Amino acid sequence: GYARIDHDRVRRRGFAEVVYCEGKTPEQSAEILARLAARGESNVLGTRADVETFELVRHMVPDAEYHPVPRAIVVRRGSERQIGSVMVLAAGTSDLRVAEEAALTASVMGSRVERVYDVGVAGLHRLLREIHRIRQARVVIVVAGMEGALMSVVAGLIDKPVIGVPTSVGYGAQLQGLTPMLSMLTSCVPGSSVVNIDNGFGAGYLAHMINELGEGVHGHRED
Amino acid sequence: GYARIDHDRVRRRGFAEVVYCEGKTPEQSAEILARLAARGESNVLGTRADVETFELVRHMVPDAEYHPVPRAIVVRRGSERQIGSVMVLAAGTSDLRVAEEAALTASVMGSRVERVYDVGVAGLHRLLREIHRIRQARVVIVVAGMEGALMSVVAGLIDKPVIGVPTSVGYGAQLQGLTPMLSMLTSCVPGSSVVNIDNGFGAGYLAHMINELGEGVHGHRED
Amino acid sequence: GYARIDHDRVRRRGFAEVVYCEGKTPEQSAEILARLAARGESNVLGTRADVETFELVRHMVPDAEYHPVPRAIVVRRGSERQIGSVMVLAAGTSDLRVAEEAALTASVMGSRVERVYDVGVAGLHRLLREIHRIRQARVVIVVAGMEGALMSVVAGLIDKPVIGVPTSVGYGAQLQGLTPMLSMLTSCVPGSSVVNIDNGFGAGYLAHMINELGEGVHGHRED
Amino acid sequence: GYARIDHDRVRRRGFAEVVYCEGKTPEQSAEILARLAARGESNVLGTRADVETFELVRHMVPDAEYHPVPRAIVVRRGSERQIGSVMVLAAGTSDLRVAEEAALTASVMGSRVERVYDVGVAGLHRLLREIHRIRQARVVIVVAGMEGALMSVVAGLIDKPVIGVPTSVGYGAQLQGLTPMLSMLTSCVPGSSVVNIDNGFGAGYLAHMINELGEGVHGHRED
Amino acid sequence: GYARIDHDRVRRRGFAEVVYCEGKTPEQSAEILARLAARGESNVLGTRADVETFELVRHMVPDAEYHPVPRAIVVRRGSERQIGSVMVLAAGTSDLRVAEEAALTASVMGSRVERVYDVGVAGLHRLLREIHRIRQARVVIVVAGMEGALMSVVAGLIDKPVIGVPTSVGYGAQLQGLTPMLSMLTSCVPGSSVVNIDNGFGAGYLAHMINELGEGVHGHRED
Amino acid sequence: GYARIDHDRVRRRGFAEVVYCEGKTPEQSAEILARLAARGESNVLGTRADVETFELVRHMVPDAEYHPVPRAIVVRRGSERQIGSVMVLAAGTSDLRVAEEAALTASVMGSRVERVYDVGVAGLHRLLREIHRIRQARVVIVVAGMEGALMSVVAGLIDKPVIGVPTSVGYGAQLQGLTPMLSMLTSCVPGSSVVNIDNGFGAGYLAHMINELGEGVHGHRED
Amino acid sequence: GYARIDHDRVRRRGFAEVVYCEGKTPEQSAEILARLAARGESNVLGTRADVETFELVRHMVPDAEYHPVPRAIVVRRGSERQIGSVMVLAAGTSDLRVAEEAALTASVMGSRVERVYDVGVAGLHRLLREIHRIRQARVVIVVAGMEGALMSVVAGLIDKPVIGVPTSVGYGAQLQGLTPMLSMLTSCVPGSSVVNIDNGFGAGYLAHMINELGEGVHGHRED
Amino acid sequence: GYARIDHDRVRRRGFAEVVYCEGKTPEQSAEILARLAARGESNVLGTRADVETFELVRHMVPDAEYHPVPRAIVVRRGSERQIGSVMVLAAGTSDLRVAEEAALTASVMGSRVERVYDVGVAGLHRLLREIHRIRQARVVIVVAGMEGALMSVVAGLIDKPVIGVPTSVGYGAQLQGLTPMLSMLTSCVPGSSVVNIDNGFGAGYLAHMINELGEGVHGHRED
Ligand SMILES: Nc1ncnc2c1ncn2[C@@H]1O[C@H](COP(=O)(O)O)[C@@H](O)[C@H]1O
Ligand SMILES: Nc1ncnc2c1ncn2[C@@H]1O[C@H](COP(=O)(O)O)[C@@H](O)[C@H]1O
Ligand SMILES: Nc1ncnc2c1ncn2[C@@H]1O[C@H](COP(=O)(O)O)[C@@H](O)[C@H]1O
Ligand SMILES: Nc1ncnc2c1ncn2[C@@H]1O[C@H](COP(=O)(O)O)[C@@H](O)[C@H]1O
Ligand SMILES: [Mg+2]
Ligand SMILES: [Mg+2]
Ligand SMILES: [Mg+2]
Ligand SMILES: [Mg+2]
Ligand SMILES: [Mg+2]
Ligand SMILES: [Mg+2]
Ligand SMILES: [Mg+2]
Ligand SMILES: [Mg+2]
Fold first, then answer.
1. Which of chain C's residues have a Cβ under 8 Å away from the Cβ of B189?
2. For residue A114, what is the enclosing H or E element?
3. CA distance to partner chain C, nearest, from residue A112 (Å)
4. Residue C162: what are its φ and ψ, rounded to 5°?
5. Ligand 2, residues D20, D198, D209: which to mutate, most atoms within 8 A of Cβ?
6. Pick from E127, E121, E171: which is nearest to E146 by CA?
7. Which residue, A44, C221, F222, H31, is most buried by CB atoms nearer than 10 A?
8. Atom 22 in ligand 4: residue holding the nearest Cα
9. What pLDDT, on a 0 to 100 scale, did the predictor assign at position F216?
């Protein structure tokens, strides 16, 4: 009764419903994940999952994996081909949880992912040293807390779509991430857009969609 | 003294600096636009421009165009080829100003643009009737004021990147666009991202970049 | 000394004072509930009650019931007749706590309640499949977290009063429910109104009052 | 191109699309209103309309009426029967604009409307003197600015659904109506719900729907 | 080193510095309280104190008292005369903590205090029944959470200064007390003013000062 | 129809209803003021009135006065006795409008008013020089914009009730007065309370009530 | 009566009171400026002054100057020596008003001022090209609207105190400057601090004080 | 992989990267601190560190110190010379944590630090008694919670740069420090600027930079 899985989603959008485990009981999350895995139409992903939920899933789906940094559950049921690539940047070490959620999501969906971490604007040369490599990617995710200035700086230096992910890292006027979120939204550099605070999942998902376009995968799955 | 034009931008990002005319004197805006037009490296765009600014520009650049709905100035100096396409949806008639800014920007940068307007969720069948056509585009811009629910509904029905543009259309709890902005950022549907309130320009710019990727234009212009 | 029960309320409003147990000591809540049960003029309801409070109540009122999902205490002292009906929709599994508080309240007051859960706009066909059944109800409660877009979509499809209940399900820009609350208040679809975040109780109460009107129960109890 | 009238709305929801004239050009508003009037399936309503818009409408639809206090345009094309009733309360004289928008909307849709104005809680006896009359109505709209306390007081005294309409009347901490809006949403009295700030239209619309239910009009128009 | 007691305060303002124990270590709070008690110039009050702090104080000052509801420590060192009176109203049982802090403060400073609790506007007759008694007081404190409407209603019925104390009782749009705070500040009834959320102490302190004025105590202590 | 004057107010609260002219038409305001003046039971006050409203009043009530700084209309119909006193402090010259509204209100109600203006904390010695005189008053109103620090400083130096009036003077982070309002509410000095931003009227009204208490005027008018 | 000039300020703080002309009548501003000029103890500055105010001042003080970009009035009465230097950076042309207010203030107080304008992070090379020159200054003011990222980038590249001035340039999520203000306050780069939105004056004033310290001017004027 | 230490920072900015331990695992923080200590180019500082992190560091760096009040880790690797001085003021005992973070930071960087604590404006004479001593410092840090009025008062009395540090000490309308932050930003006294809420570190860092300027240390380290 409580869950009405959108089994049509793989056909319509190319990837199974992703389960947001926060606010569900471990039993609810596990059951939904197991049912999605059983269909086996695409890789299966559960985000914001604790270890207790994972243990329940593993009982039902022995090959399920747990990724502790992004707190995610993955069941591999799709092709292993990886296209791309998607670049994930993180401003500081404290932003890793979110960056890894983005990287895992894009990867599970089929993108090749590269990472450049701890390149906040406090020491700009660290970023500039990697800029050539960053420019090779098809789409760039910038994960940053504090004031989120990294996103504007990156967007100004490259000519690919940039997805900003503000994080809740910081305190006081950082307002649990509202400040970098507002900051990224009012960036003086065009070519970027923003997802919700700490929403690594959403950024990885969108990055993969853009990456697919660049590969010449032109969908219209529904039709 | 007051302006330091980023003439390197065409090489670095593929399109000349776009002039945000609000908060500049008409003289300042006009001079910058004329100097960019004189270089002739790409089309030139000035946004949020009033007629007075346009008159000054026209004196210096006779073939400049004024687009009254989005209040934009255009000088054609680039190729006329159009790739694509970019789809622009608008929820209501009052959102047209912003929708047209997005459409013009993408078009001036080189995208073929399609429009589907007044398809707010109050009469869902209007949207569903067009959904097949919407799915043909490479990237979809959704312009919506009030509560901005249209973006989630569209993103749930297609498998292409969606760019949400919240508008300030509404009153009271709409908070001059903050409500649809927050709403779009917390959408329960992945595959979308958000630009600033009323920022048709930013949406059109990003949409064109994604559209280019889909065309196989793989940049790395700088290198 | 601490509580001044409004014993006139059944006569004036048709239902006994409902006890909001949060912020009261278990002893205070239990005593008030027991005194209301002792009068036996109508069913008795305590919301946001923990198990400790319930144990105290059960000592004094052996036939008291505890409903763990909505965390509510009920003592049946009224008629068993149920009129109706009230429809409760929930966007996601995480919204169940609130949806069940709404459903229980309406039911305890005398409404027949129907439920359609997990019909968020990410997979619209799930909602459309049930729309005929939803239209049969006299009044519809829509419980939704994230951006709350479900309420507008439902209101646009039916011709009955819709009560929106924003929930605190989500994170970041969801602002503990402020975002769907603002969103529902600025809905582009008329025919709806909104209660406080997570206030399933208030929605159920109002829905029952409207349902009663539809039954031809025309009150003026006071006079 | 700019407007896609939802002509299905009368069948689906019992009343034609209401035109929100703010943010549209007078020409756009007038044309839409004229087209709706031409179909003649129900009364036609345009809200937030200025006199210039009305003059354009009158050219095309000679029997159009203008209501200056709520700034609304009405074209009568429906039945003249009035059911009900809907009671509209206003806390102060400055709230009249909004109260009259609510009253007009309910009336144009087919409800008999009664008014009790200037009964703010500063002089409670004014309200108490009218309470018997207020209790006769099927549904009560409470329009109040400042802190909006009137809604709670009224809801506590009657047993009918109450619709709160916060207004932007006040200054400073009144926050253009956010304060009474939040206040009404957190009312300690159940049986009420809230619409957007200054949204007399939405309150009147919903009140009529509830009033209809009380009349035994049980819709399911779509089916 | 950490504390610089303002020993001049009794002479300047008629009452010793009151110790806000939150955010201090128990040792710091206890030492300051003991030093104030040792001077013995007036009663001594510590607010927001936990039992651990009290135990430390009792070691040094055996006749110290602990008041668990308002979580306050009192050492009696002043006159026992009580003038007055100060009336404390509370809207609901959950507001008692704050109401008792107000009552204790005024009493410890030398006011006779009366209490009327659980008279929220949901059952107005409960308040009206006590209104005669309320009018006898010199100054009235109104403690209310949720939307705080009680303050306006009381102020409209009496002709004495009213001090509003918004509380954090409620959830969602109540915003931890910001809503009743804003509400009380924008009250449509003059003759009232507001202190910080949950600040029973500040209300009791001010009430006593006003009460003293009414007694003909005309200070100018400093001079 | 639009106004229901609370003629009972003089008996109940000692002063006629004060008319808030903002948001009323000049005709509405003028008529209400004239009717109050005609009863002649107390002085009559209209706040936030423009000259146009005053001209209409003067036609009907030739002895009406206009006070341009606070934009208020006064009709003298009460006793001329003045008790007191009430002290009005203003931090800066830009706060005068509000300070004069407070001073006029208290004076029209029967208080003797003293003024000390332009004593902001930037030059503390200006305040200290007047502190002896300030201590003579029964109650002190502090009008301050910017950050509103003056209120805390004054309250710390005297032993009389202090009423803080935050003003909207300032820009940016001053948030149209929200900053000094919040600041005054969280003052580290007890003995003060706060009214709405720019609400000189409310401060003057309350100050007079407190002043009256100090005079031994003990009301209970209603009984 | 309305103004109490702090003539002690030159002795205490080294510079005469600066007049904030907004919210004062032109007559009030002009008179205060003229009186300060008459004392002739230091240069005199009036900020946010319109031309009307200036014309009044010029009548009384013929050598007064008007600076239209920052809208400031200056009367030279101090030494002409200039120490330094203070560097003023501006992100965009629209920030000039504020940048020039900062530059003028520091200069009028006695600092040599250098300017580097239009070096926003969208074209980082423009900034990097000037970084050597920027490093020569003793203190750097960064004026930036939109998201204000320039301040962090600059602070990371130099080893001098940085003063951030957020401006209200931008729209939507820029929140009239709150976004860059919050952004600068949560900068991931230490060595900076922030003044109010658009407060060029405050930045210039503080910069001069720091510059003076670097010159070996060690004040203690008061003593 | 996770950390990219900015080893260039000592050369560029004169002090090693300071490690913000919140949001990092103890292992991550400890490793970074140990690597910085190993280079031995300057003192090393870790802020917001818990004891567990310190224990890990001590294993690797036996002479590391832990400062429990500001929760900081220090490793001495720089010169012991102290210039200055920097004055740290705290309004109340509850602000000590933040004040000590500021004092420690400035001291570890090479400043001589003086402290004057518990001098809030409630008892102004405590501050005035120390004002002569405060004036001797080169730069003054003011740490204050509640409404933060102390900063304005101090800035008005001295002629040195003032750095305001709002703290989260307080409740309700204090908004976890937003109120004193906004308050300090809108101070009516020039010569001050503000850092983030509770950011003692940032204030100490900046104070040291200014102190160095006053010593004649003129950097341009990079060049
Ligand atoms: N970490 C996440 N953040 C935001 N949305 C998510 C996340 N994980 C899953 N979702 C989406 O949230 C929705 C939750 O749906 P459900 O699991 O049915 O409650 C799905 O449509 C997912 O696409
Ligand atoms: N005054 C009003 N306030 C809020 N919504 C309105 C108002 N007037 C009309 N509407 C609704 O707003 C929507 C506007 O649609 P449109 O006229 O197509 O832009 C319609 O669905 C109307 O139901
Ligand atoms: N300047 C003012 N600010 C706030 N309230 C006011 C002001 N002037 C009058 N009022 C109050 O506002 C209420 C307005 O009532 P009315 O004039 O009936 O709309 C009255 O109760 C007055 O006491
Ligand atoms: N307590 C603190 N508050 C604010 N920023 C800090 C604090 N401690 C260190 N930082 C800065 O925060 C940044 C964090 O960098 P990282 O340690 O690489 O994540 C560094 O540039 C530090 O200068
Ligand atoms: Mg689901
Ligand atoms: Mg530029
Ligand atoms: Mg009760
Ligand atoms: Mg339409
Ligand atoms: Mg103290
Ligand atoms: Mg009235
Ligand atoms: Mg002055
Ligand atoms: Mg680092």
1. 121-122
2. strand A111-117
3. 26
4. -115, 130
5. D20
6. E171
7. A44
8. H18
9. 84
